[in-house]
Design goal:
4 helices, 147 residues, mainly alpha, two-stranded antiparallel sheet
Amino acid sequence: MLKGFKNFLMRGDVIMAAVGLIIALAFSTLILAFTDNVINPIIARAQGGKSAGLGWQLGQAGNKATYLNAGSFISALIYFVIFMAVVYFVIVLPYKAIQARRGVTVFGDPTPVKTCPACLSADIPEAAAKCRYCGTDQPATPARAAG
């Protein structure tokens, strides 16, 4: 039972989904800070108000609604960068090492591709002998001709 659970967790798509969700959550914090502290004051400038901190007052002094709070946005940006570094060093790198021991390459460079001269599909693997879309024979690449 535990081996099945381990195999489920070690599937690449589960880890990719988890990393994607974590990045999305952190990015949503960044976007929320940007909209709350940069965009909203610009829009609220027409209304008036008061505030203080790292930023610029766009209306009356002390009006929080028209204060462009750059300090809060910079804090959110720093949070995002630190959070992504933690995700990379705590989740992605160990996962890459575990998968490498299993003989699986994850988060690697994309494989080389070529364009089919007949149908112009740009995602044909470089070593392909035929186009996967139109079936046209592909010209030999140096790597395929030598092997």
